[in-house]
Design goal:
Elements (H helix, E strand, L loop, with lengths): L5 H11 L3 H8 L3 H15 L4 E3 L4 E3 L1 H29 L3 E7 L1 H8 L3 H7 L3 E7 L6 H4 L3 E6 L8 E9 L1 E5 L1 H7 L12 E4 L4 E2 L2 E8 L2 E12 L3 H9 L4 E5 H9 L4 E2 L9 E8 L6 H20 L5
Helix pairs in contact: 1-2, 1-3, 1-4, 2-3
Length: 308
């Protein structure tokens, strides 16, 4: 077992430059250190690698075999170091980003192609999942999250990029049939569309806010689904009131396929933030994506917001 791989490097230098003096001048390593380390290497191997005279050196048979193997190790190590150096010169290599499915479809899909066009040497893995990933353990460089507040994440940086809410919507035909709702209490009288997680003991429960006021609005869901796109389509078809994230509902609101219900009342505000390890030692590829998202994502969030 070699305790110090530098010994292999020193041995290669001496052989390549045909002597300790020349190797010392080219490498900057003291001649005495080169001589001592090669001698230690020979002692550890139990064979003579070099025949030395006052004017030159020559490889022994064992030294010739050993030198060929050392070249592979030393050149491989140099290639490994060069690959990291190249990554540090300009954005290049793989960047892994995790975010919820809704954000991937609405916020990121319009802007990420522009980033990849700007940085042709970067490869991007976008993991669209509603599961909260562990950046460190799972090897992600960045994660987008939406939470009522930015969580305390030890060793990670959280950068706020915008806010989003869930909004109450229904189709114009549904509103014409059931009438305008005046307060959250009126939700008890109409069909609703919601996620299974919003139901307790057979009754739907939505936490709604209006300025400084809040209430837990009870309702009776006609459709239960975690598929928010399905909820939107059902709402467009007049099947009930849905409480949907702004990026899901905004385009349908703009096209007048659905209208806001109970204006002023929304779901809790969620902070959208970018989570990443502390910048020390960060590669340019990761830094470039952080900078790009910090510039372009707030505008994409704003574009998919709804005027309450």
């Amino acid at each position: 077992m070699i305790d110090d791989l530098n010994d292999l490097q020193y041995f290669v230098l001496v052989v390549r430059h045909k002597g300790f003096t020349a190797a010392s001048k080219i490498s900057g390593v003291e001649k005495t250190r080169l001589s001592r380390r090669v001698a230690i290497l020979e002692s550890r191997l139990g064979v003579r690698l070099l025949n030395r005279t006052t004017r030159q050196i020559a490889l022994t048979e064992a030294g010739s075999h050993f030198y060929a193997q050392c070249l592979t190790v030393v050149e491989g190590a140099n290639t490994a170091f060069d690959s990291i150096a190249n990554l540090q010169i300009e954005p290049a290599g793989m960047v892994r980003l995790s975010c919820p499915q809704v954000m991937a479809e609405t916020y990121l899909s319009p802007i990420l192609p522009g980033y990849l066009l700007m940085h042709p040497k970067v490869r991007l893995e976008l993991n669209a999942t509603d599961r909260e990933v562990n950046l460190i353990e799972e090897g992600f460089d960045l994660a987008l999250r939406a939470r009522p507040q930015i969580e305390d994440s030890a060793g990670l940086v959280a950068r706020k990029l915008g806010v989003a809410r869930r909004v109450l919507v229904a189709s114009p035909a549904f509103i014409a049939r059931c009438g305008q709702l005046e307060s959250p209490e009126d939700l008890k009288q109409v069909d609703t569309l919601c996620r299974p997680g919003d139901v307790q003991n057979g009754k739907g429960r939505w936490l709604l806010e209006n300025g400084g006021s809040s209430c837990l609005a009870a309702h009776t869901p006609r459709l239960l689904s975690d598929d928010l796109r399905m909820q939107l389509e059902a709402s467009i078809h007049g099947l009930g009131v849905a409480l949907l994230p702004e990026p899901i509902a905004s385009s349908a609101v703009a096209r007048n396929q659905v209208e806001l219900v109970l204006r002023g009342w929304t779901g809790a505000e969620h902070i959208i933030h970018l989570l990443f390890p502390k910048p020390k030692g960060m590669l340019p590829s990761v830094r470039s994506l952080i900078d790009y998202l910090s510039i372009h994502l707030p505008a994409s969030i704003q574009e998919h917001s709804v005027v309450i």
